[in-house]
Amino acid sequence: MKCIVNGKIVLENQILENKVLVFNEKIINIVNEAPKDCEIIDANGNYVCPGLIDIHIHGNMGKDTMDGTDDAICTIAKSIARHGVSSFLPTTMTMDEKSITNAIDTIKKYMDKDTKGAQIIGTHLEGPFINKDYKGAQNEKFIVAPTYEFIEKYKDVIKIITYAPEKDVDMEFTKKIKANTDIVLSIGHSKATYDEAKEAINMGASNITHTFNGMSGLNHRNPGVVGAALTTNVYCEVIADEIHIMKDLFQFILNNKGEDKIILITDSIEAGGLEDGEYSLGGQKVIVKSNQARLESGSLAGSVMPLNKMVYNFMNNTNLDMRKVIKLASINPAKSIGIDNKKGSIEIGKDADIAIFDKDINCHMTINCGKVIYKK
């Protein structure tokens, strides 16, 4: 049994001081004094938060999900634990079917194995069911129409599918996914009109992939996917690196969506955590300079910023305090994929997924299911 003392414990509705968090694999209790024979962890006055959950991340430290190897998955898991991430969805790219299924097979294997880092809770399939006109950094050569047969074998591993609903003829794919799986449909890399996006949302699409990026934009007569995102009850992924979206719009997004429907993600690529230089994404050359990752065409190619920094940026440019901003990278993503019964907040009986942050959201320790996976 372990105890965290001398910390500000961040709950969904309040921050507790002068309390002790007691846990093993699960959260056991919040008490006034540490029980006897408890392994003591001193938070040194820092914030004791739920572990962060990244539901959209391709790679880190020179490795990519699409490498499809044990080394790649474990390297990503260990490296992102340094930033307070306790669980994540390794995210695939638009590539050939064999490469995608190989990556998913590796992910599936590590859903039941120790990565020595953040826990793998499934995968996010970004493409190949997208629109070439908004492909962004995805490879157009491998874009295909959505088919249920493509994913059927992996419906227990895939937690999110990013797709362009306008490419779903008669919404047959949407109907089959909603009727036969618990997979979240997320609209992204899409040229859908406002009405097409609304139709998909009405039929069960519940997320928007990296809002504003890779989709039909907001126009006063043609509101597009962005308009549907801001005017319906969907979860909206946001890359808060101040590059993908101008920081002055963070409060605008918050005002429209509210704190319960925004999910901060990294969309990190293999260059995350490394210096400027040339890297790869989905078999395409990526040039990283001054925290910006771009294809040779100039298109943005994911980000290189860690999730705790995204959280800090959003807090620093909105009216959210520590308690509220942490929700955007913990309980919100957990709720969006239906795992909030065990992850996403510090509650008795939930997994002991914990991150200790200072006031600037620098990570001092990360814990997954009671095990320390990173210590500064």
Description:
With 376 residues, the protein is an alpha/beta fold. It has a single domain, classed as TIM Barrel, CATH 3.20.20.140. The chain has ten helices and 22 strands. The strands form five sheets. Strands 1, 2, 3, 4, 5, 20, 21 and 22 form an eight-stranded mixed sheet that branches. A six-stranded parallel sheet has the order 11-12-13-14-15-16. Strands 6-9-10 form a three-stranded parallel sheet. Helix 5 (194-202) crosses helix 6 (224-231). The radius of gyration is 20 Å and the shape is globular. The chain starts with a strand and ends with a strand. The mean pLDDT is 97. Belongs to the metallo-dependent hydrolases superfamily. NagA family. Its EC number is 3.5.1.25. The active site is at 267 (proton donor/acceptor). Its cofactor is a divalent metal cation.
Question: What's the SSE blueprint?
Answer:
Layout: E1 2-10, E2 15-23, E3 27-31, E4 39-42, E5 47-50, E6 52-57, E7 59-60, E8 63-64, H1 70-81, E9 85-90, H2 97-110, E10 119-120, E11 123-126, H3 148-151, E12 158-163, H4 172-180, E13 184-187, H5 194-202, E14 207-208, H6 224-231, E15 235-239, H7 250-257, E16 262-265, E17 277-281, E18 284-289, E19 292-295, H8 307-316, H9 322-327, H10 331-336, E20 354-357, E21 363-368, E22 371-375
Parallel strand pairs: 1-4, 1-5, 6-9, 9-10, 11-12, 12-13, 13-14, 14-15, 15-16
Antiparallel strand pairs: 1-2, 2-3, 5-20, 7-8, 17-18, 18-19, 20-21, 21-22
Helix pairs in contact: 5-6
Q: Helix/strand-derived class?
A: alpha/beta
Helical segment count: 10
Tell me the CATH superfamily. Metal-dependent hydrolases
Give the amount of beta strand, in percent.
Answer: 25-35%
**Uncertain ranges:** none
